[in-house]
Amino acid sequence: MKALVSRRGEGRSALQRADELGKRAEYLAFMLGTEAYAIQIGNIVEILKPLPITEVPRADPEVVGVMSVRGRLVTVVDLKRRFRLTRSFTMDKKSRILLVDAAGELIGLLVDEVLQVYRLAESEVEPPQVLGTEQPPHVVGIGRPAGGAVLLLLDLAPLFLE
Amino acid sequence: MAENTGGGGRGESAGDKAREEFFSEAQEIVDGLSRDLLALDDVCRRGGSDAELVNDVFRAVHTLKGLSGLFGAAMMSGLSHELENLLDDLRLGRIELTAQVLDLLFQSVELYGRILAAAKGDAPEPAPEVKALLAALGQVAQQKGGGGGSVVAQYELDPGLLGVLTEYEEHRLRTNLQAGLSLYRMRVQFQLATIDSALDDLKSKTRPHGEIITFLPTGEGGDSESVELEILVASRENLGVLKGAVAGPNISVEEVRRRDGGPNPAASIPPPPFEDAARRDASDPYSVSISPPTTSGGDALLDEINAASGGASRTSAPPPAPSFPPGPGAAQPGTFPPMGLPGMPLPGMGANANANANVSGNQRELTLRSVTQTVRVDIRKLDHLMNIVGELAIVRGVVARLSERVRLDPDLKEIAPDLHRLHRSFDRHLAQMQNGILEVRMVPLGQVFDKLARIVRQISREHDKQVNLVITGAETEIDKLIVEELSDPLMHMIRNAIDHGIEDKDERMRVGKPPVGTIALNAFQKGNHVVLEIEDDGKGMDPAVIIAAAIRKGLVSESEAREMSHKEILTLVFQPGFTTRDDVTSLSGRGVGMDIVKTNISKLGGVVDITSDIGIGTKMTITLPITLAIISVLMLEVAGRTFCMPLASVEEAIVFDDAMIKTFEGREVMTQRGATLPIVRLAKLFHLEGWRPGVWINEAAATPKPPEVRPGRKAKSYCIVASVADRRVGFIVDRLVGQQDIVIKALGRSLKKARGLAGATELGDQRVGLVLDAAALINEVLASSPEGRIAGALEGPRSPKPASDVRGDGGML
């Protein structure tokens, strides 16, 4: 097994490996129900404790509602409903709203808990195909940082570009 | 509606910013161009001409060309180039300023606007139109004639000299000769060391007596320290006077004789200068006569142009001064009787012209200065500021509550008055700040009026009706966003006024009206609203014709028509599909227009009202809120949620109970003052009843209270009668909270599917209230329940409400 890993390492040039070291990307990990997800930290504008949210009739089912963040209207989306993990909204003391810039619009993502920031090297990211050949475009890979956590890495743009 | 994107934080690259600047600057120049053309058209129609205006137009086009070149706007650049050629021909007198040429110029302004819109991505590029215009410009250029070169040929001038004249000099020469002036040739020896001052000296001596056309070195008579110049002077005076004026050593003056030996005009008795000019202009009303007194100003301008374009720079630009002597007996301005050609600069009013030239010079400087004092601001930045003010308003609310608590707390009694004072002061300054920002958003209505003036000219020419547009109140200010949205509705109304209102000339004469029709465009402020009136002195609207047309189009039944009041009949023109015309003209009569006008005005929170008298005219009155950023709403509650209904759409609110309902095919309607009113329960429309409020909302926040009794049952509820463009629907709600002015914000793109909402606003306590889009909801409700069918079932006439009643200020409970 060890031999296998080292052989794989040999297959890449020193230049490539140096590249990978520099290419560590920062991800914020959070929980949706029992599953851990992560998005690139550059997308996140702010992490907020839940504010009063006003329901919007006729909006998509995953839309929790709108809230006002220092005078700006923000649409709050429940990713759990988006991913069909649950049918009802829940919110508790650990709940947070990630304010993200999704395809030019300010969106609040309702998550159950914010975990931590991970710096993932390219070698710590598996391609989405390990989950199966047909993966939705917002799934960009699986993060396996040291320490044993497993994170589903998300790209927000495809989620909000419809 | 207000697009308060709450932006400002969006990063813009320097390139974007420069492009934005380009757009607004180009737009400004195009607007100015339009104004100049209108002025030119005006002068032209009165048989005069204005060289300065032509030069202004030329300069504007030249600037546009430069700008567009800089930004790679190829189409604009190409158009500007051709226009520049045309204008150059115009100012050099190679072509005449005919109505046709003016048409082309006006068309170009139109196209500039569209090219700019296209470049911004708002519209497709008007490529075929530009091509057509370029072709038309080319044709005009073909027609240019020599414009009287023969006059010059009649004089004994050295062809070599003629060959080196600049085109402008040649034009000046021709114009002066045509005006009957004599031509003199001076030969002057200048010492090289002092040539500058000596030449200036000579110029100032000559100036009171004539215009220096050109000066050129002769190449003879000079030595290493001196040079001989030949100076060509056009003057109205005889040789003796001129000789006396410039007398000095090394100066010889001689007259350039006509080849045919004909009398040199000035040598005989000089004709009264104004008569001369008048004759020329009367015989040829559209020719550009660059009249002598304006030449000095024009000259200076041309030098500017030359300098700006890096073209032939003249060695010394003459300071603005009359290049013309006061005519005999015209030593004092005002000696001449007033002429029948207003706006025509009179030769001989040298002193006045001089003053004018100086004034206009000063004005130019002044305008330059004022430009540097203004700042162009993206309206989104103002929205951003407005949002911050909105936040502060919320802070103010919190402070007010704190202040109240402190007042009631015996331990804190000492600081209570201070806190109260602070709160009051904060309150006051915040209100000032809000007003200040609103003020910045305001622009004068003149912006849109200028466009309308152009359209009136175009339409009246197309339609061969003479129309005089009288504008008052162009300085009235209104929100920038409203001005943008106003131009289309106003254009429709003006088109209607010309097409349907103003009679043709013969008809007007027959009924004893002046042949030229008048359309008055008045604007004034009335409280928190701006009122716009469009009044024509045409034939007025005939109720019988309207009724007949409405019946023919199936908009009303004959029995309904009999019961309608005069006002209700007039309001029929706002019905979709209404037209009195069977033939469709290019102007109007296609049955689209007035309903769109009404809908657009309603969208801006405004109302339209018509009054009309047969044979006397029609008056349309538009009342608009001054700003879109703040709208008045009726706050209401449905199933524990707060919504806002724009007051502009609310007709009245009435206490409602279920007994008032009748049901047809499952649709609910009620009878209100003898008319059928379709009703809809907002809770049902929005599927609010099944929601369980408060489950997931932060505990600290004020959770919406569940309604005490289920709506629509025994509890008292209310029916809000809302209308848009004469379509009315009653909305059933649980509770009326009250009236409030709110800052409306647009919902994000992700909420596009949520139809029926115009935006949202902050209610205080960090809560957000949704603003209903009354027009969309009404259309939705009526689309799913054709009102005609219901009305038919009830046998009640639909009663289009007169627009004046479509206000929310009365009838509220």
What does this structure look like?
The complex is a heterodimer of chains A (162) and B (813). Chain A has helices at 2-10, 14-22, 79-82, 157-160, and strands at residues 25-32, 35-40, 44-48, 63-69, 72-78, 96-102, 105-111, 113-120, 125-126, 139-143, 151-154. Chain A is an alpha+beta fold. Chain A has one domain (23-160): CheA-289, Domain 4 (OB fold (Dihydrolipoamide Acetyltransferase, E2P), Beta Barrel), CATH 2.40.50.180. In chain A, strands 8-1-2-11-10-9 form a six-stranded mixed β-sheet, with no helix packed on it. Chain A has a five-stranded mixed β-sheet with strand order 3-6-7-5-4. In chain A, a hairpin with a 2-residue loop joins strand 1 (25-32) and strand 2 (35-40). Residues 1-11 of chain A have low confidence and may be disordered. Chain B has five domains: 16-146 and 304-310 and 350-373, Up-down Bundle (Four Helix Bundle (Hemerythrin (Met), subunit A)), CATH 1.20.120.160; 149-270, Histidine kinase CheA-like, P2 response regulator-binding domain (Alpha-Beta Plaits); 379-442; 445-625, Heat Shock Protein 90 (2-Layer Sandwich), CATH 3.30.565.10; 630-805, Beta Barrel (OB fold (Dihydrolipoamide Acetyltransferase, E2P)). Chain B contains 25 helices and 22 strands. A six-stranded mixed β-sheet of chain B has the order 14-18-19-17-16-15. In chain B, strands 6-8-9-11-10 form a five-stranded mixed β-sheet. In chain B, a hairpin with a 2-residue loop joins strand 21 and strand 22 (767-772). In chain B, helix 17 (480-501) packs antiparallel against helix 22. Chain B is elongated and about 110 Å long. The chains are: A alpha+beta (162), B alpha+beta (813).
